[in-house]
Amino acid sequence: MSIRALRYLIALAECLNFTRAAERCSVTQSTLSIQLRKLEEYLGVRLFERDRSHVALTDDGRKVLRFARVAVRAADRIVSVSRNGRTRPAVAAEALIEEINCHRLPID
Hints:
The protein has 108 residues and is mainly alpha-helical. It contains 5 helices and 2 strands. It has helices at residues 3-15, 18-25, 29-43, 59-83, 89-102, and strands at 48-51, 54-57. A two-stranded antiparallel sheet has the order 1-2. Helix 1 packs across helix 4 (59-83), helix 2 crosses helix 3 (29-43) and helix 4 (59-83) packs antiparallel against helix 5. The longest helix has 25 residues, at 59-83. The chain is globular, with a radius of gyration of 15 Å. The mean pLDDT is 84.
């Protein structure tokens, strides 16, 4: 599982359209679809219901999406803090833990 795959999940959940989500992520529809299928296989759940004209999050997809947003926000924060030269990598890792703890979500 990668941060990139989580970004694809977020994009498709927000767009509910493979073309627009792929454009937002600057990848092909094929790449987006393949990566999301791999994420579903890795997690062992179906994240989206799809057919030719419809895309919708499943209940599992909604649960995973909540955690994906926290993880992506935390990863972005680590990169930002590290690139600004304000901290060492160990402190950046602590920032990730703090970010996750601040957004603790119930596991249903």
